Amino acid sequence: MASPTVVVVGGGFAGLYAARSLARRGVHVVLIDRLNYHLFQPLLYQVATAALSPGEIAEPLRAILRKYRNVEVLLGEVEHVDVNARTVTLEDGDEVRYDYLVVATGARHSYFAHPEWEPMAPGLKSLADALEMRRRIFLAFELAEREEDPARQQALLTFVVVGGGPTGVELAGAIAEIARHTISQDFRHFDPRQARVILLERGERILEAYPPDLSASAQRALEHIGVEVRTGEGATDIQPDHVTIGDHQLPTYTVLWAAGVASSPLGRQLGVEVDKSGRVPVQPDLSLADHPEVFVAGDLALLRQPNGKPLPGLAPVAIQQGEAAADNVWRSINGEGRRPFHYFDRGSMATIGRAAAVAEIRFLHLHGFIAWLAWLFIHLLYLIGFENRLLVLVQWAASYISYERGARLITGPWQAGWPAAELVGAKGNAKERGQSVGR
Ligand SMILES: Cc1cc2nc3c(=O)[nH]c(=O)nc-3n(C[C@H](O)[C@H](O)[C@H](O)COP(=O)(O)OP(=O)(O)OC[C@H]3O[C@@H](n4cnc5c(N)ncnc54)[C@H](O)[C@@H]3O)c2cc1C
């Protein structure tokens, strides 16, 4: 009998670890991703804030899986899954047949029924998102240098981060450090230290998934580096030149979105009812109730813990589920019974700026420099590729000593796109009217 084909859709944490685990056992694997690289999402904010370059947190899937001759990597977007015919269909109509399927297509950000906010407040999920955030942050400072109107200049120097989870905390901390340290000497017509960085959290405290003492410690660390933390307040409207908080309008050109997650739309094609954020309920062995040959892993899967709460959308959950799904596929191929998935929680951590973090490791609550060292160690450990690890370590060491951020590049035509188009357009009109257009 020909060896079964396992199709893995998604080369993120869950998909890649599933594919690798099956590859080591000699199973024929077809890994399909719409990107040709595996992305280490926990360090995306470092690309968005110019501490790292895209290549340092991404590694080509083909290179990672090069040594496994039994693995095929296909670049393509899966648009349709037919669980009865056991096929997946790519965007150009190509079909791939499977005996077992692992769906691990992750999640994207959601704008809570306000999709119209997306152009004004980009989220952070892909490298393209990170580069767009980087462009907006550094462009705002550049435009402020040329701006003569003090109100507009202050609006350019106001950065609002929506969402006080780990990503929002990391982004706000990094922007404050950029303004207070990295570029503090670089401009002539304003003092970058006067930039306002505001972190909005609708809930009672930032980092709500963490114990209250660590939330408080993170808030103190953020305030220490100049972030205004506003809890119990969310954005009620976002427009190109302001954000509305309650009934107050705050002029700003840079709003960054770090709130809300919606699962990949592919989950809706698997013939089961998904939850309100699009997650697919799975059996304890991570398969679908009516299709034991189909597994779902990572951010897309909905599996409750013994306390009734769903497992969180975290990289370690995705990694462990990818490996567990692969193990259960292997067991089925060999006619063995499957094992239920158990999450081994090694703890979670979030970093605040250059050398502070909070970490919850079982009963241990760490904060400050020691938590940051733990964060650094764990992130390096899981970063795929030896070369990347080395590069990132060198970058971190350099920026730790100097506060420098080597990737402060505004790429693409800066006049096109938000916020430059609007402001430069306004000045262009002024010029036609013969007025001053700036320095
Ligand atoms: C900014 C940010 C910071 C984070 N920080 C942390 C952190 O500090 N610690 C932590 O534990 N977790 C963190 N996370 C969460 C963590 O990254 C996710 O839980 C994890 O990536 C989920 O893995 P996954 O494999 O389910 O999905 P992903 O890693 O998102 O991978 C999904 C893959 O599927 C591919 N794909 C999607 N749709 C299709 C399709 N239709 N066809 C083909 N391919 C498709 C995508 O290209 C992608 O490669 C962070 C996430 C973000 C966005």
Task: Lay out the secondary structure.
Blueprint: E1 5-9, H1 13-24, E2 28-33, E3 37-39, H2 44-48, E4 58-60, H3 61-64, E5 71-75, E6 78-82, E7 87-90, E8 95-97, E9 100-103, E10 107-109, H4 127-146, H5 150-156, E11 158-162, H6 166-182, E12 196-201, H7 212-224, E13 227-231, E14 235-239, E15 242-245, E16 248-251, E17 254-257, E18 261-263, E19 280-281, E20 294-296, E21 301-302, H8 315-333, E22 348-352, E23 356-361, E24 364-368, H9 369-382, H10 386-402, H11 420-432
Parallel strand pairs: 1-2, 1-9, 2-5, 9-20, 11-12, 11-17, 12-13, 19-21
Antiparallel strand pairs: 3-4, 6-7, 7-8, 10-18, 14-15, 15-16, 22-23, 23-24
Helix pairs in contact: 1-8, 4-5
Description of the structure:
With 439 residues, the protein is an alpha/beta fold. The protein has two domains: 5-34 and 76-110 and 261-333, FAD/NAD(P)-binding domain; 127-258 and 354-420, FAD/NAD(P)-binding domain. Helix content is 32%, strand content 23%. It has eleven helices and 24 strands. The protein has helices spanning 13-24, 44-48, 61-64, 127-146, 150-156, 166-182, 212-224, 315-333, 369-382, 386-402, 420-432; strands spanning 5-9, 28-33, 37-39, 58-60, 71-75, 78-82, 87-90, 95-97, 100-103, 107-109, 158-162, 196-201, 227-231, 235-239, 242-245, 248-251, 254-257, 261-263, 280-281, 294-296, 301-302, 348-352, 356-361, 364-368. A five-stranded parallel beta sheet has the order 5-2-1-9-20, with helices on one face. The protein has a four-stranded parallel beta sheet with strand order 13-12-11-17. Helix 1 runs parallel beside helix 8 and helix 4 (127-146) packs antiparallel against helix 5. The relative contact order is 0.15. It binds flavin-adenine dinucleotide. Flavin-adenine dinucleotide binds next to helix 1, strand 2, helix 2, helix 6 and helix 8.
